[in-house]
Amino acid sequence: MMDEKLWFVEQSNYKAYENPKYETVFTLANGYRGLRGWLEFSNYGFPGNLIAGVFDKADSQTTELVNCPNPLVFNIYTENEKLDIDRCVVLDFARKLNMKEGILYSEIKLKTQKGKIIKIASERFVSRSNVHRWGIRYTITPINYSGKLFIENIIDGSITNNEFEPIKKVKHLDVKKGYDLDTGIAIKVVTKDKGIEIVEGTVVRGIGDILQNRKYGVFGEKVREIYEMRVKEGKDYTIEKYGVTYTSRDTDKDPYYLLEEDIKSYLEKGLEKELNLHRDKWKELWDKIDIKIKGDKKAQTGIRFNLFQLSSSAYEKDDRISIAAKGLHGEGYKGHVFWDTEIYMLPFFIYTNPEVAKTLLMYRYNTIDGARKNARENGYEGAQFPWEAADDGTEVTPKWGVDYDGNPVRIWTGDEEFHISSDIAFGVWEYYRTTKDKDFMMNYGIEIVLDTSKFWSSRVEYNEEFDRYEINMVIGPDEFHEHVNNNVYTNYLAKWNIKKGIELAKWLKKEDTNIYEKLLNKLDISEDDINKWREIESKIYIPKDEKSKLIEQFEGYFKLKDITIKEYDENGMPKWPDMEGCKLGETQLIKQPDVVMLMLVLGDEFDLETKKENYEYYEKRTMHKSSLSPSMYSIMGLTVGDTKNAYRYFMKTVLTDLEDNQGNAGLGLHAASTGGSWQCAVFGFGGLYVDKDECLSLKPWIPEKWEELSFKINWRGAILDIAITQEDIRVNSTDNVKIKVFDKEYFVEPNKDLTIKALAYNN
Amino acid sequence: MMDEKLWFVEQSNYKAYENPKYETVFTLANGYRGLRGWLEFSNYGFPGNLIAGVFDKADSQTTELVNCPNPLVFNIYTENEKLDIDRCVVLDFARKLNMKEGILYSEIKLKTQKGKIIKIASERFVSRSNVHRWGIRYTITPINYSGKLFIENIIDGSITNNEFEPIKKVKHLDVKKGYDLDTGIAIKVVTKDKGIEIVEGTVVRGIGDILQNRKYGVFGEKVREIYEMRVKEGKDYTIEKYGVTYTSRDTDKDPYYLLEEDIKSYLEKGLEKELNLHRDKWKELWDKIDIKIKGDKKAQTGIRFNLFQLSSSAYEKDDRISIAAKGLHGEGYKGHVFWDTEIYMLPFFIYTNPEVAKTLLMYRYNTIDGARKNARENGYEGAQFPWEAADDGTEVTPKWGVDYDGNPVRIWTGDEEFHISSDIAFGVWEYYRTTKDKDFMMNYGIEIVLDTSKFWSSRVEYNEEFDRYEINMVIGPDEFHEHVNNNVYTNYLAKWNIKKGIELAKWLKKEDTNIYEKLLNKLDISEDDINKWREIESKIYIPKDEKSKLIEQFEGYFKLKDITIKEYDENGMPKWPDMEGCKLGETQLIKQPDVVMLMLVLGDEFDLETKKENYEYYEKRTMHKSSLSPSMYSIMGLTVGDTKNAYRYFMKTVLTDLEDNQGNAGLGLHAASTGGSWQCAVFGFGGLYVDKDECLSLKPWIPEKWEELSFKINWRGAILDIAITQEDIRVNSTDNVKIKVFDKEYFVEPNKDLTIKALAYNN
Fold this sequence. Notes:
Strand content of chain A: 15-25%
Pfam family, one (chains A, B): Glyco_hydro_65N
Distance between the termini of chain A: 33 Å
CATH class of the largest domain in chain A: Mainly Alpha
Largest sheet of chain A: 9 strands, antiparallel
Number of domains of chain A: 3
CATH architecture of the largest domain in chain A: Alpha/alpha barrel
Oligomer: homodimer
Shape of chain A: globular
InterPro entries (chains A, B): 6-hairpin_glycosidase_sf (IPR008928), 6hp_glycosidase-like_sf (IPR012341), Gal_mutarotase_sf_dom (IPR011013), GH65_N (IPR037018), Glyco_hydro_65_C (IPR005194), Glyco_hydro_65_M (IPR005195), Glyco_hydro_65_N (IPR005196), Malt_Pase/Glycosyl_Hdrlase (IPR017045)
Family (chains A, B): Belongs to the glycosyl hydrolase 65 family.
Largest interface: A-B, 41 and 41 residues
Keywords (chains A, B): Glycosyltransferase, Transferase
GO biological process, one term (chains A, B): carbohydrate metabolic process
Structural class of chain A: alpha+beta
Strand order of the largest sheet of chain A: 1-8-9-10-11-18-15-14-13
Number of helices of chain A: 19
Number of strands of chain A: 31
């Protein structure tokens, strides 16, 4: 029972202003779509029905993920008084996300203005079994009266994007048609630019003949049916709501036909049947992804929340889509895909669900033509992946934003944050290194690595004076500094990218000359070119401090005003130091790890002392003004033996959305942070890494209060079950695996526990 | 200053659930349209933009007045936080309807969730000078912050009818087009059945260059523009909102052209100019209509409210429309016109503004073809006016309603409440008697009287046994009893109607044989027919008690279970007596005056004893379950010398909407009650009546606490100013007038006060 509680995220107090946050936290998604945890009985909040891949620009500054018609509208009227939580006395309020089963439970008891008390319990799910389906079961109990209720089922096509920023409100959908499914309703909308058709259908069904006198109607952009109910005091009335969604992305025919058919069979089999299939899927999933932290309930629930929502964001059957920075959980960042996916989220999938990881990379492969277009347009060669990506690989970063005072500011990331291309190439490599999926690498992955290599070789600028290649006018991961030259993260990864390109070309030539030649032909790369790459990568400039192991974030960084963090807030997060009249970009303060990030991504390229020295230097200068920041400092801290901050950074990461510690959870999931949470647990506390010899290695450390940390990973097809306690490390595997623990080699035999006792890793 | 207060209706406390009531109370109307006093900053309530004559059926049970696009939407965002009174702390709240000037003032100070305090003052008016125009002046003051505001101006075409009764929600409008007036916005909608086009346009204009970065857009059925404002703490920012409306009822061309032109000139001249013209019109109006009650502030404000809203409901320039039972103040009774207009409201206009009275009667004349159609369809002859009327005189009473338990009940009034036809004929006569407008009577009025006479002569049934004419299966004014035979009100007025028809036919023949013959020809009435009418009217059965002067409400009424009222509630209104197991229709309890009504309408047909006896009998049996009831008992009480209840019934009438004592003020004005209020004051306390010799007569009585009651009336072109105090009666006139005061004749010379002292009328 106690254990069950560790599967729940709970809200026990209703405050209207918290609705947007809980909409994100209680989003139910299945990778195909996300339904924000919108509360049907409140006017306040931002309903979100986000279907992966449905992008549109219309009057927006740039293309964005479309907020589709809201099918959740479900109004209850006692007599003619609308049940509105914000006008009622809230007698009871509880919402619980059961992460184990992927079900959002709620139980609300309200007293209306007219004194009627009504209880509404509900279970909501978005099916992982059939991604087009979702459902809700309502149980309505009139506590202190008998009489008439009306039940109004609406699909609201009037929805717009950016409701939360009214001046930017954009309408992407035209309503084409309302359908009377009798019973049930459906709507067909079409996006303005690309003509993507979306059909949403819902059917409400009363258990027993309780829904009467149905009326159907189309009200402008809303389709509705309304029913009468005669209710008796104290009796429970159950209504099932069935939802089905299709879009023209799913079919060449009219998606309405698919909807009609699917809704029919859904109704025939019933809600409980789908709910069971859905539960089974989550059971399968949890068996792969769960991380157990014994002795720390908050961490346990927290990490599960991150795993739950990250898993909910992926759909392995559609390789035209990826995971957006805000998941399918909100409109923030316009549903765009960033480096967050490859660098923060991908490792989770690589190690737990490689099928999904492959799909995410295939999305990049499938959008590489857009990346090529970007390169051409910017005067480069090869494939330049966009800093922000939507559905076709072209750059969709908005050019303008506003600062805190509301002044317009030019956004330069789309022009200058080049490192995304090597981040993707790295993702390809990391996937391959872990899975050894040769088919993927030969047919798809290598094309990404080679074409990004080609891009970099055209992007670098030769500096004759120093006989070196430079990459100027860039933004590194730390976005406080724009237009910088030779950002070390960018340069190092560009160098790595080209090197990996050369290495893989050689490999492919050996593996399959035919494919090799075809590919070089396709990419218009000659062997001369590859030789030229060798020269370039060897001469790419990496700024370093001459007297120490300190790496200079970019050329001239050390000459900036050296302001360091002196004070921390009650959560242990840095307070802004006195800027001494400087602008941010004139100081050494950084937003998030940059050099440290590099040392995490390419861990085996740097020795421990270098890591330590740089960690210590940069940690004092990092403001953590990105949710991508704390997790990485946690991992690096554990790597270099600075365990004092690791737990705090970990919890900060894990609770990003649950405690809304970035203040913008309402806009969607901090998806990078969910991936960061997993990395913190597995790469940080678990100390898992792949060494230079591609051997899986562990150097774990767990906080004193943790009794046990355990997780599973998929290493080249073998499922390893790893448990770390204060006394030992246990490894179980489905296959023979060689593993290093604190640099010592072990061989794990199938289904035989390897236990390593009395470790020196504890403090 | 004190006196000024008597011109205000005030709301000083904000409670969301009271919004609908205040929307009605604060409606601003000019007869062309009514704009409900919708509060822009709340989600709760029922906006109403009701344009007289715009009727449509669509999916409604019967044709109804269409709720037109809401042009009042005006959202303010502090940063991106919408100013929503229901989410704010309400620091100050005051709304005041200045009835003298026809301006709704409001001053609201709110603290947002984020702690921003903002004050919004506004003045709203609906012009009486140019009925197409309305306007608002907002003054916005950020009290404790500087920063950014957004101002969102929207016209909402998604509005539907019957929002307050969701199962009956009906959409009447299709949005045809949004217009970018740059600056300003407009919308064109069209009604579903009749294709009436409505265009609404609004322009917001900042005083000083305060509105910036305008964005225009159409969002489905909503047209909007949004502006940015940079505001400074403590500074006032003034924004004027200009509104203009036209419909295809106003023009043969595209109404948009009229709007475009009108909005241009409106903007050129400015808001203040229109406001001044509007104020002037109200000044003119009040000079005619005001009733002064000194010594009783509540009565003074109350009576003015009734005069204000009744005057606001009429538009003398459009004789295709009349005044609905709920005015232009709400959707209640579907914007239909009942006998309320002729019997309750018309006297006010006849005596203060005969031009309007004529227009109201011309509406009946213009819809007489519909009345003829009703008669034909029901198997009768002549003109049968509809119990409920919309735009063409055909019967539009819904056939079905619901009882308190929500069970469907057949509504019989449209089938059986025949007295409306003679009520209208009576209105014609009353207008003529007071104005001597011969032109109207000869060309229009008489046609109504003759064709309703013809109707009645076909409607009566001859009873051979008793050699009498009966009218069976009817509903009288008391709607508790349906399907009754020989309702005395119905029979008596039918008799009167035919008699008046005969009399007027004779008169017309003498006045203008040509018109007379043409008319008889047109109506297919022969002189033989008229002779037959004579026989009919003389034999119409009037049920009476044999042993007393008591009139039996209908045949068999006295045999019903005689339950009388025993207890009264805290407002002095009857409580339901023990029904002793009977159904309502099986008892002598009545909803509202019926016999008493008859004795008021045809006052000179009954002697004082008859009135007294019947008043006393029926008063004990009247439940006042209609807002049409108390006023009539007040007048009759004063007539028969029972002054004890008169004031209470008067105040009940006057405060019907202000105190919402019928519990449904939210659905619209109780317009009959506004007319009843005037009648109570003038016919009741003023004791004004026209005697058998058509001499204007006065028998006033005023309550002890009233220092003076004074009012003006128009009697055959002479404006009489009548003041009644505890000591004397003063009459002033613009012309020579003969007048009786307590049955004694006086001659009033122009502009010379006639003062009659030391009266015996006080108790």
